[in-house]
Amino acid sequence: MPKSPENKIQIKNLITPFFFLFLLFIIRFKNLAIFSLLHMAHPPILLFDFDGCVITQKSLEYAALVHLKKNFYNWRNTESLRLIDIARLFEEADSKNKIKAIINVYRVFKNYIPSRWKRVLFFIRFRRMYPKYETYETLKPKLREILTDLKKGGVRFGIVSNTSGERLTIFRNRLNLDEYFSVYVSRDDTPIRKPHGYPVIIALKQLKKELGTPIEKNNVYLIGDLPTDIECAHNAGVKSIALLSGHGTKLSLEKANPTIILRDIEDILEIDPFKKLLLE
Question: What does the pLDDT profile of the chain (280 residues) look like in tens digits?
């Protein structure tokens, strides 16, 4: 028996709302899926500063101690400087280009070594001395175990440092850092150093290619021991972790307003995203 026009209209009226509800469900499900992909596409990314966070940097401190004890240089304005401050000033002023390096050191140490020619001599002697002792540098205590545990949870690691590419490569090979780290950004890889955020952006671009997925900055952490590292993270739009067991002071790091403050590197396992990975 053929359906009457009235019956057809009633059936159509019943189907139409269900169709639109089904369509709305599909659209919302699709948006939810896209949102999930964007926000769950990659595991946490942990970027490290190098000196003081990955290695101990004792050789630079020893070289600074030896030179600071020499009255020959007529040191001044050093009351507030620690050994690591002198070491960092030198290391960051140094360059693969010797002429550029000596000019940088000459300017940086102007307030500490009055004599011009003694500043030049300081540069020559310091530059020759500290690499001899870098063979004794090791990874920070417990760092290897921590990296191993986090790697099992899928965490990706990188190094973003103001040190030279040549020096970073030496440690990369000697300490077998490729076992954990897949991205390395030195001062030779970027025209702008930390505290600018560009070095972190370079690292994230490399990780994006490696992972084959967009990077969610809310899932990226930069761990450093100096205020410049925290400022770099802020400028790059990623989360920052201040490490108090490095070379920065607690007061200066707190003033930098990091996302998280850690007493020691092992405390990173207590941060929620990393803690959850280890419990899964």
Answer: 554 555 545 544 544 555 455 445 444 544 444 444 444 578 899 999 999 999 987 888 899 999 999 999 999 999 988 888 898 888 778 877 888 888 999 999 999 999 999 999 999 999 899 888 888 899 999 999 999 999 999 999 999 999 999 999 999 999 999 999 999 999 999 999 999 999 999 999 999 999 999 999 999 999 999 999 999 999 999 999 999 988 888 899 999 999 999 999 999 999 888 888 877 6
The tokens describing 162, both together, are 């103001």
Contact status, residue 260 vs residue 269, Cβ threshold 8 Å: no
Tokens standing for residue 13: 């009226």
Which residues, in sequence order, are bridge partners of residue 47? 158, 222
Give the C-alpha separation, 141 to 16, whole Å.
Answer: 67
Question: Could you state, in order of their start, the residue ranges of all structural domains in the chain?
Answer: 45-56+137-279, 58-135
Residue type, position 138, single letter: T
- Domain spanning 45-56+137-279: CATH superfamily: HAD superfamily/HAD-like (3.40.50.1000)
Contact 150, 267 (CB under 8 A): no
SS3 127: helix
Question: The whole model's pTM is what?
Answer: 0.76
Q: How far is CA 208 from CA 84, 166, 204, 220, in A?
A: 34, 25, 6, 12
Partners of 222 in beta bridges? 47, 240
Q: What is the DSSP letter of 78?
A: -
Closest CA to 186 of 170, 207, 168: 168
